[in-house]
Amino acid sequence: MIATTEEQHLLEKWQKKLCLQEWRIKLVTHLRPEEMSVSNAAGCTDWSESIKTARIEIINPACYGDRIVPFNFEKTLVHELLHLKFSFWCQDEYSVADRLMHQMIDDLARALTEGDSDED
Known about the structure:
Layout: H1 5-17, E1 24-31, E2 43-48, E3 53-59, H2 73-85, H3 96-113
Parallel strand pairs: 1-3
Antiparallel strand pairs: 2-3
Helix pairs in contact: 1-2, 2-3
């Protein structure tokens, strides 16, 4: 499904914040798990850094399931956009370096989208 107006506004907001305005991005949301390009993921991105194009897919929240971390559309979107920011590094999903980069991307996405907490 094509992204809602609100989802599209979030894409534009985060493209600007992350200096990704030159990228042409198609945002597809509310997908069933079998429609996703990657299994067991809240979101996934297919990109070409040489021509700065990407397709971001985000699962339907109703299909997210009972996971430890609750579904957060904005965090998932930012996570996928950060893959574009670090696209030069993310080349082999099975290498230890790329797995570590994926952890850092997720940490950054959480830090950017989750509210500040007084807890340490």
